[in-house]
Specification:
482 residues; Rossmann fold; 2 domains
Length: 482
């Protein structure tokens, strides 16, 4: 079922997907991103510290000063460091939001959190993260990194260095100037999405205010997602409190506009997950997985079939799609040639990054049989895409031409991942079987099944030329990605 968003959210999703495609999307994660995983918020972290000082945590709002008071009274911050260790070192599962963000091609994440949930999420996706939580780490880069995680307030692994007291905040522009410079640079070149952030952090305010002064009307557009106050919850127990918080939120939202930050309001936190899922879905639809193998090309001639595959691949690159291929027998070479022809014809317009090749392993590795390796490989390869095209799908077994089970398996995995599946049934074998499997339950495969059926039938009709089918595939995908 297609999710419907209000106009401002729809505009944000479209623009942020463009930034993802261009490699200019970034994330700023606040405490609110980690709290659903079971970690404490700032008030809970400082409750014992307030008790030690003889103060009521429910009355205090300046928690940075509270930490400073504790250091002033005890001439040590050891208890605060211990609290950070106690609260953030525990093994906690990352949330669905963490997992979605880790699957996206985000090259940098900024956070004021001490926990390691973000790193764990990227690691689970097989990505190499380069974490920076002190100034010296900014001088060295981890080889083959996929994402840089800037932990501007420190990390749970070094609680004694965590930024938490008022004095540390006051001196941050001197002690951590390279972090401020790095963040300033990223805020001017990338589009940030702020998640779980309250915008009360003085360091962030310091950077934003100077960017606002320096660039004025030319500053970059950024976004944050914030939950509306809800009457009757813990923070809004009565109408007067609710009205007060609504008004304060309005003022904060308006003030953020000075910094080029547009606020998107949601009624519940689950809406944030829905927005992130939609971003991921739309981004992945720009990546097309081409599945197929061919020992024979019946009912077509070999040369016209090779040209057909070549033209589809070229047209996809020219449509600014990315193409993923596992180098299937009799099909993979044509996919590669078509993509490269488009890329090399206009290297300033198209990129090598639009062709993603994943040749299958040919030998057993460790204790895993080749069949197991291939299945895992198919899952990883197909997970990169949002649309799957199926061509031919036959192989030679002991002199007999049979349906390629690997292509059928790739269809099953594609459907399980939620990919939109496009079989060119007239090419026969696996493609024909997939078409026949889809038709009886077509509503479960496409949002607009009536339009999809017309495209599929045209792709199944042997009377329609292969050249016409190239355009039909492109038109089908264009309709699906509107």
């Amino acid at each position: 079922m297609k999710m419907i968003f209000d106009r401002e959210t729809e505009i944000f999703i479209r623009d942020y997907v463009k930034d993802l495609n261009e490699g200019t999307a970034a994330i700023f994660a606040g405490a609110g991103l980690s709290i659903p995983a079971g970690f404490v918020n700032w008030q809970e972290l400082m409750s014992e510290i307030a008790f030690d000082l003889g103060l009521d945590i429910n009355v205090e709002s300046d928690l940075v000063s509270l930490a400073q008071f504790h250091v002033n009274e005890n001439r040590t911050r050891s208890k605060i460091s211990r609290k950070i260790l106690e609260e953030f070192i525990e093994e906690t599962e990352e949330t669905e939001n963490h997992r979605i963000l880790a699957r996206l091609p985000i090259s940098s994440v900024w956070t004021t959190n001490y926990d390691e949930l973000i790193e764990k999420a990227f690691l689970a996706e097989g990505k190499v993260s380069d974490t920076k939580h002190n100034v010296k780490q900014l001088l060295n880069n981890k080889p083959k990194r996929d994402v840089v995680i800037f932990k501007m307030h420190g990390d749970v692994s070094c609680p004694a260095e965590a930024i938490i007291t008022k004095e540390q905040y006051e001196q941050y522009h001197q002690t951590h100037e390279p972090f401020i410079n790095a963040l300033t640079g990223e805020l001017t070149t990338k589009t940030f999405l702020f998640l779980g952030f309250s915008f009360t952090d003085p360091n962030l305010d310091y950077v934003l205010s100077r960017l606002n002064f320096r660039y004025s009307e030319d500053k970059k557009q950024h976004y944050c997602i914030t939950k509306r106050p809800t009457l009757g919850d813990n923070n809004n127990p009565d109408q007067a409190t609710y009205d007060y918080n609504v008004r304060k939120q309005e003022l904060i939202i308006n003030d953020l506009k000075r910094y080029g930050i547009k606020t998107l309001l949601v009624d519940g936190y689950e809406e944030i997950t829905n927005i992130l899922k939609e971003i991921e879905s739309r981004f992945k639809k720009k990546t097309i997985f081409i599945s197929g193998s061919a020992e024979v090309y019946n009912p077509y001639e070999k040369q016209e079939s090779i040209e057909f595959i070549h033209k589809i691949s070229r047209a996809l690159i020219e449509g600014n799609f990315r193409v993923v291929n596992g180098f299937g027998w009799g099909v993979g070479s044509s996919v590669i040639n078509g993509a490269l022809e488009a890329i090399y014809s206009k290297p300033l317009k198209y990129s090598d990054a639009q062709l993603i090749l994943r040749p299958f392993p040919q030998f057993k590795t460790g204790d895993k049989d080749l069949s197991v390796l291939w299945d895992e490989y198919r899952h990883k390869m197909i997970s990169l895409s949002g649309i799957s095209i199926f061509l031919f799908g036959n192989k030679n077994v002991d002199g007999e031409i049979v349906t390629a089970g690997g292509v059928i398996r790739e269809f099953e995995i594609s459907h399980a991942f939620g990919n939109i599946c496009i079989p060119v049934a007239s090419t026969g074998h696996a493609a024909q079987e997939i078409y026949e499997k889809i038709l009886p339950s077509i509503d479960s495969y496409y949002q607009n099944s009536e339009a999809a059926k017309k495209y599929l039938e045209k792709l199944a009709d042997e009377k329609v030329s292969l050249d016409e089918k190239v355009q039909t595939v492109i038109d089908f995908i264009s309709d699906l990605t509107k």
